[in-house]
User: What shape does this take?
Amino acid sequence: MLLGACTGAPQPEPSTTEDAVAQEQPAAEADVPVEGFASPEAEIRYYLDRLSDREFVETYGGEEHPRIWYTAAEALGRIGAPAVPHLVPYLDSDDPWELKLALYALMLATQDPAVTSRTGGEYIRQGTVLDERENAANRAIARDWWERWGHLWD
Assistant: This one.
């Protein structure tokens, strides 16, 4: 599932949480477990190491409605609860791209039923996602959530 770089004109990005949720995952890869990892931690590390890689993306939606699939962030979000504490240190990233994807992955991962069942349904709710101009506000939201619920991973 290695990906080639997107070329050509910049691709539109989802601008709100609703847009991100409404987009469909690429059908061929959405629910297929990644094989070949020695452990769940190895899978998490693999995707964490690729958060800053601007070429580790795919496009979907066709030529008329292209969308970017942020492979590492989506995979970490799919992993859910086990990925959460590994993503939290990325809130200190100075790389705007990496921070944007870590925030997105945290938003997705904290929606895992294994998390929300213990938080009374609370997850990291960002108003605008995948927009580097919103990194500071989204970082504050994520840190506040972690301050309230981080003890679940102790």
Notes: The first strand starts at residue 57 and ends at 60. Confidence is low (pLDDT under 50) at residues 1-33.
